[in-house]
Amino acid sequence: MLTHLVNMCLYIVCCTPSTQGLGSDWPYTAICCCRYESIIATLCENLDTLDEPEAKASMIWIIGEYAERIDNADELLEQFLETFPEETSLVQLQLVTATVKLFLKKPTERPQQMIQLVLTYATQETDNPDLRDRAYVYW
Asked: Considering the entire predicted model, what is its pTM?
């Protein structure tokens, strides 16, 4: 039963063209419904299958929200940071927030470098005022 639920969650995150019908709190709902931390690991193993901005934003939210439970959360977020300038504003906003959460939950050197990078991108290399304002608030 759990395997089926995890696969269903993976399908929703990875394959559904639009996750807007699920609501903005969908990742939280999926994790709470499953109530098993193992689903986080399973979802994180499938990051390469994400191609929709909503799915990427949902996974970034999960990584930021559960950073203290994901051993390689910094590596996972770093994968998304490599394409930050090309991502949609939805993904960029989520990356800024998740990187700040990661730093607050794991205040080590690597997350500190990541936060400097993402805030620099968001404040100096974007025309999106929402993204820039959020980055300035966190800075």
From this structure: 0.74
